[in-house]
Amino acid sequence: MAEVLLKDITKIYDGGVKAVDKANIEIMDREFVVLVGPSGCGKSTTLRMIAGLEDISDGELLIDGKRMNDEAPKDRDIAMVFQNYALYPHMSVYDNMAFGLRIRKFPKAEIDARVKEAAQILDIEELLERKPKALSGGQRQRVAVGRAIVRKPKVFLFDEPLSNLDAKLRVQMRAEISSLHTRLQATMVYVTHDQVEAMTMGDKIVVMKSGLIQQIGTPLKLYNDPINRFVAGFMGTPPMNIAPADVTEEGGKIVVKEEGFTVVMPKNREETLRPYVGKKVLLGVRSEDLTFTKKPEASNLKATVTVVEPLGNETHLYLDTKDNQFIARALPINEFNVGDEVNFTPDVDMMQFFDIETERSLFYKA
Ligand code: ADP
């Protein structure tokens, strides 16, 4: 069992920087939880408070129900994997992995068995005698993970472990860490600024901004029902198109529009928008929820193509309505050229609407 509970956890650094403000996170046994957000949002500080590497200014940290605020890192039964691997350069791979167990006075045979088991799991058995400088980035990363595995900790903490690897290796290691999680059945907390890593790896994602948790949920909940403009724009590539638009009432229907984009609200979504008639809202539409059409419907995006990006399986089009820019995806069966006037039908049921001041989603369901 390894359950981690953060209750109103706050971190104020010397000098008064509030890096984390009343964070409440419930990390269940065997869960893979990802903390994600832009640089400086407080995700590493949160992880380091769980590890015991930073003091907790306020709030309570519980691991399996036991208060951990004042326990030393070594007494928390956790293991952390860092971005820079933090391997000892003068020690072999074997000794790097054995080191933590030796200082904890584990019997030699037990250390040997654990190192060999971890090496086998990570497929680095051939490398045990090498020094870190004779390893590739990916291999060093595996050793750093191995050093955590041999400890058999209650909780694994990862701090941006893949950011030093090239793009291809990152994708591979991402899948390896996911399958390691399945294999070890361990509780893992993983910090990254990369929303794709968060989406692909997390059972649960915690999105942070400026020290504040914005939303906690499964990858698809965050993608399909973001609580606010920030989460909507942060999760997903290309990012969700978000633009200001006027809410009007035309012939009894609620219509949201800007220069080239008209959205006739379906009956079941009218009531939420009615109080905004005569005001502006932010409309949000993902590029995959725009479908190229030669026959414009009542809800329509009419725009000029400014950039064409053929990716092979699909083409990204940058569209200009004079008021705003949108990115749409189109099938590669259609040819597009810069300057084309095009029409796209939005999937109105999938669209998001945000209050222009609070930036909260009008349709968010807690
Ligand atoms: P992230 O991991 O999301 O990039 P951090 O948790 O490292 O963010 O930092 C959160 C905020 O706390 C930032 O504003 C950062 O400048 C500040 N900060 C981090 N470490 C310290 C420190 N040792 N002293 C003072 N401020 C710090």
Compact overview of the structure:
With 366 residues, the chain is α+β, with helices and mostly antiparallel strands. Helices cover 25% and strands 33% of the residues.
Q: Can you give a write-up of this model?
A:
With 366 residues, this protein is of the alpha+beta class. It has 2 domains: 231 residues, P-loop containing nucleotide triphosphate hydrolases (Rossmann fold), CATH 3.40.50.300; 115 residues, Nucleic acid-binding proteins (OB fold (Dihydrolipoamide Acetyltransferase, E2P), Beta Barrel), CATH 2.40.50.140. It is 25% helix and 33% strand. It contains 9 helices and 20 strands. Strands 11, 12, 13, 14, 15, 16, 17, 18, 19 and 20 form a 10-stranded antiparallel sheet that branches. Strands 6-7-8-3-9-10 form a 6-stranded mixed sheet, sandwiched between helices. It has a 4-stranded antiparallel sheet with strand order 2-1-4-5, covered by helices on one side. Helix 3 packs across helix 4. The two termini are 28 Å apart. 37% of the residues are buried. The model has no long low-confidence stretch (mean pLDDT 95). Adenosine-5'-diphosphate binds next to helix 1.
